[in-house]
Write a structure and sequence with these properties.
24% helix, homotrimer, Jelly Rolls
Chain lengths: 134, 134, 134
């Protein structure tokens, strides 16, 4: 198994495109296999999405509708509504498995991989990539 | 890694059972390993579900409640509410990993694999299967 | 591929921490690779979550908001609102892939793996672990 660990600066951005980082790792390891993408964080997730046409903001805003940033949450430290961030990974998982074909990250034309991070208190995220060849 | 690519006609169907296609591939590759199931599309997802007892329609209808087909979405081309389809894959991922035991797709008695596709504008979908033996 | 099958008693608990079980299997198999975690059930899912700080109850309660236990569901056998349990796995998948580094389950400091089971009618669950080394 080959590994790479990346530091991603999300800052106040709720959706951060990491496709280029994954494609670069796939190219470097080469060959065929599975790429395991993982965030070792309890308040962030990974999603496949078309970016750049509004869906990134649509997703970020709709997360505020589905997981309201109000005082309903027991887990209530940090900024207001932060408990919502802690429930997010149950719906948008921090674990994602993709395929690599001959060093090429296998994605559809309109798919990008994004880091979903509604937690502005944590502007730096670690992204773990592992490749299992076959 | 062994691969198979399938064309699935979803038409206007929102939930399409693809279990037989996956089980057939598992049988053909034989052995033990992981089966990576992937949709290279930005408006569809994969789910494990009991089918044929109402839950398929329950899921499709409830997606309209959770992701309303109204004018809230920035991504607004195509048919009304189509922006909802672009947010769907963040919650119902187009990537799913299953196990194969000696050529048998490992599923529980009541589990089927379904393609979730609320986008009626796209009646044809590509399904990518990859098997990594172990 | 190495396998382990566990019986988990969830009882009336909606969130059950299974991290220790997974870490024990990772230790026993040793080496590097991918750990496939799977529930062969149609009314349960797996999530990565910080436990013990309120988010477990937050998630369980919020599932009742997102998937209300009322009479909207076609799939309507069993206890009231049971149809919601059958839709749950589309959003909280029963399939989860994790990484193992030299026999250590790769998780972040605040991450635990939980079995999400809103179906009190089924107090016993089977958990399937498979390890594919690399």
């Amino acid at each position: 198994m080959q590994r790479r660990e990346l530091e991603i600066t999300t800052g106040a951005r709720r959706i951060t495109d990491v496709t280029a980082e994954l494609a670069g790792f796939a190219r470097d390891v080469g060959g065929d296999g599975l790429l395991h993408v993982f965030l070792p964080h309890a308040t962030a997730g990974l999603a496949l999405l078309e970016t750049g046409a509004g869906s990134d903001e649509d997703l970020a805003d709709h997360l505020d509708t589905l997981l309201p940033r109000d005082d309903r949450w027991r887990h209530a430290h940090g900024s207001p509504g932060h408990g919502a961030d802690h429930v997010l990974p149950a719906f948008v998982s921090p674990s994602l498995t993709l395929a690599v074909d001959d060093g090429r990250l296998a994605l559809g034309t309109w798919q990008s991989v994004v880091l979903v991070d509604t937690n502005a208190d944590n502007p730096q995220r670690r992204l773990e990539l592992r490749f299992l060849g076959g």
